[in-house]
Amino acid sequence: MRSNVLRTVQNGLRCLPRRPVSHKSKVAYQSYRSFIATPLCREEERKWTTPLAKQLTEAINTTGPIPLASYMRMCLTSDTGGYYTGAIEEGRDQFGRKGDFITSPEISQIFGELVGIWFVAEWLSQGRPRQGVELIEVGPGRGTLMDDMLRTIRNFKDMSSSIETVYMVEASKELRTTQKNLLCGEDAVMTESKIGWHSTCKYSGLPIIWTDSIKAIPQDPNKTPFIVAHEFFDALPIHAFQVVEVPPNQKPTPTDSNASTISVSRPGSPPSATTSPFQWREMVVSPTPQGTTHADLGTPKSQQHDPVPEFQLTLSPSMTRHAQYLPEASPRYRALKSTPGALIEVCPDASLYATDFASRIGGSSPTTGDSTTATKPQPSGAALILDYGPADTIPANTLRGIRQHRHVSPFSSPGLVDLSADVDFAGLAETALLASPGVEVHGPVDQAYFLETMGVRQRAEMLIKKLEQTQNRGDVEEKKREIERSWKRLVDRGPGGMGKVYKVLAILPENGGRRRPVGFGGDVGV
Ligand code: SAH
Fold first, then answer.
1. In the predicted structure, residue 525 carries a pLDDT above the cut 70
2. What mean pLDDT, rounded, does the chain reach?
3. Alpha-carbon dihedral of residues 333, 400, 350, 441, nearest 10 degrees?
């Protein structure tokens, strides 16, 4: 089996260096060099950094190199040692100064407060529904964003009493407990049901239900769902593809038995693989052969004192099943198929979530919706997606690894390194609009624009004023400086600044574009 893997890798091209781009480092798919054969050592001699590394290697030795998405899924949410879902040592935390990364809600309470206000504005604009409102957060981390949102919404009594249930979609058992402790109190019990885990919020006694997937939340056309996703989509597994030019006499070589049964042919799509010299090839993950050096991998200088990554990304030498249909799924990808070397990242899970959000808000499209979701007589609700990624181009070469606030190889210490990739905002918009005739999409706008038009400066001034009135101790000045520092960090438009790198996209009930939401250039339309 092992020789199979090596043969595949040797036949393929090897992805080499990583280079820091923008605020987090990214894998450079562009640089390849031919594989350097290295002496084989017996597998049992190899010391793995994590049990997941060993498990992945054994799986790859059986199946051959795996899609990047499979590697990411295992690293992030596998039961055995996934970054979010694995058993973590006591006291370890992914978030905050002592963790691996810090997110906007953890930087300033103003972030969650303004997101809460945005949903209040939507609730007002949609005729103040008195009942049937659901708050849904996907990927809630420590629960800080929902806590700040609920504390804010509590001040708007009519909206607060219209909320029936708060849903938290969270894959990690540990994080579900952290969120419960924050939102319900350490003593509050969690009970299990068919849907998920239930407890009661310390704010107004609202019921909170945790699920591990959005599919578990019932879809009811009479509900008004307000959905928030902050730094969730960047954690979903991506597939990566590159266009190669195939010599005319070389036929496509599917690598799996299902490949020949899939045929994607649409009006306007480019000629099929048999007549076109261009093919999409998938980037796949395999173990680095023993003896591989940083020089072989072209590791950036800043990472050369780290151990050599145990895995590598290579271009599959033959057609994979995913390469046959995923890059054909959108005209945006198909337009690149005659550009040799073109790279794209495709996130099928992101499409599933965008489709779900759109059909909850606008009802499902009769052609694309699945039969379990109903059409919705009166579209209602909203989704707010905040994340990083380009406003309109297709992400390429954006996978990054983060550990303890440092850029590290995404192919090192699987399960201990956070992996993320840029979000394809234009792709999310396209998917949502296709999924439901009852929605429209606004944005993406830069986070700086969104927060500034939502009143971040004014809110900071209010907090500072309150501090001056209520505090008479000596640390007031330091607290004031901290408020200033943190809100300014959220709207920083400098190179790599959060105000520019992070974007905000809204999915709303279709209204012919007549009403723009606040934060996107509009006003509250009451
Ligand atoms: N929104 C939070 C946390 C972002 S980190 C913040 O901004 O601070 C990503 C979050 O998504 C974590 O809570 C992680 O456990 C969760 N997550 C990652 N992949 C998931 C998946 N496939 N399904 C459900 N939750 C997931």
1. no
2. 85
3. -80
Any atom of ligand 1 within 6 Å of the Cβ of 84: yes
Angle between helices 173-184 and 144-153 (to 10 degrees): 30
| DSSP string computed for 46-95 | PPPSSHHHHHHHHHHHHH-SEEHHHHHHHHHH-TTT-TTTS---TT--SB
Q: Are strands 502-509 and 418-420 parallel, antiparallel or unpaired?
A: unpaired
Distance CA 88, CA 172 (A): 11
Among residues of the chain, what percentage have pLDDT more than 90? Answer: 68
The pLDDT assigned to 93 comes to 73
User: DSSP characters for 311-331?
Assistant: EEEEE-SSB-HHHHHGGGS-H
pLDDT at 313: 95
CA-closest residue to ligand 1 atom 19: 235
Ligand 1 mean position, distance from CA 171 (Å)? 7
Write the burial class of residue 487 (CB in 10 Å: 0-12 exposed, 13-18 middle, 19+ buried).
buried
Beta-carbon neighbour count of residue 62 at 10 Å? 11
pLDDT at 484: 96
What are the structure tokens assigned to 489, written together?
């960090």
**Tokens 């998920």 -> residue:** 196
Contact 189, 199 (CB under 8 A): yes
Contact between residue 365 and residue 435 where contact means Cβ atoms under 8 Å apart: yes
5-24 pLDDT, tens per residue?
Answer: 222 322 322 222 222 223 33
Q: Which residues of 359-389 are buried (b: 16+ CB within 10 A; e: fewer)?
A: bbbbbbbeeebeeebebbeebbbbbbbbbbb
Q: How far from the centroid of its chain's Cα atoms is residue 73's Cα?
A: 12
Mean pLDDT over 262-269 rounds to: 35
Check pocket membership of 28 for ligand 1, CB cut-off 6 A: no
Q: Hey, which of 83, 84, 136 would you mutate to test ligand 1's pocket, going by the most ligand atoms within 8 Å of its Cβ? A: 84
Looking at the CA of residue 95, tell me the nearest atom of ligand 1: 8
Where is average pLDDT lowest: 27-41, 82-96, 283-297?
27-41
Query: Are the beta carbons of 76 and 83 closer than 8 angstroms?
Result: yes
Question: By mean pLDDT, which of 89-98, 126-135, 422-431 is the weakest?
Answer: 89-98
Q: What local confidence, expressed as pLDDT, does residue 410 receive?
A: 95
CA distance 410 to 387: 19
Mutate to test the pocket of ligand 1, among 169, 172, 498 (most ligand atoms within 8 A of CB): 172
Q: Please report the pLDDT score of residue 135 as a whole number.
A: 98
- The pTM score is 0.88
d(CA 396, CA 26): 9
Q: Grade residue 515 by pLDDT with cuts at 50, 70 and 90.
A: confident
Contact 106, 146 (CB under 8 A): no
Do 391 and 426 contact (CB within 8 A), yes or no?
yes
Strand partners, 442: 506
